[in-house]
Amino acid sequence: MHVGFAGLGRMGMHMVRNLSRAEHDVTLWNRSPAKARDLAAELGCAVADSPSALSNAAKVVVTMLADDPSSQAVHDGADGLFAGSAMTYVEMGTMSPDHIAWLADHAPAGVRVIDAPVSGATQAAADAQLLIMAGCTPEDAAPLTPLFDAMGKETLCLGQTGSGAVMKLAVNSLIHGINQTLAEAMTLAEAAGIAPDTAFDVIEASAACAPMLKYRRPLYLNEADHDVTFTVSLARKDMEVMAQLADRLGSKMPQGRTTLAKLIEAEAAGYGPRDMASILTFMRKETP
Are both 29 and 120 inside the same structural domain? Predict the structure, then answer.
């Protein structure tokens, strides 16, 4: 399948490699052109010089962008994706459902917009083990199955446009809550004199251990020696969008709001570009 791909960040680079390995014909566009050129040289694929040119090059365009403003900027305008001729746009970044509704409302007539955010860190993206949450019916997703199967381990169809975005926020709310609670549990154990490795051994063997704690263990125990996989700033963005959605729906999320408050504090203290595992370091500094 000929697919256009926009957004070559930590996740997008791996997703493109997997699409290429599955023998899809990929054309790339990125706001930092050098990234697109370098990856295209590695994979032997084409590069578009604008979002509209990317859309003209493929029937399906996948975007993996950071937030609502970046997605709107890439889709909108005289040289945006919607100015091209693609018939399906799949937004796989973490967006607000309001933005997905905006995309659907502003897409050209006859064009389909599907929100299909993913769960899984950079290693899951590299291994094509992402969980894909698609805001569409199985029938709508069927033509995209070869693409989804190349990037993920499972695709769950949630029925209507925007439901993928909502579910992604719900999942990330849980993930960031676990991240914060892990930091608190570790600092409690360490304050009592238990070594970090030992404390993590116990947590990892307990009923409380989520899969993310296992694969993120090296980052929690030695963040500085590992590449950033998901920043504190992105976590704060996720939780802010979650809080806005909760306000609109009248959903009470007291723990989520506490997690958001701590992320805001950590970002203000300079932790924004660091991995979300650095919340453990931040909490240690808050412990007398």
Answer: yes
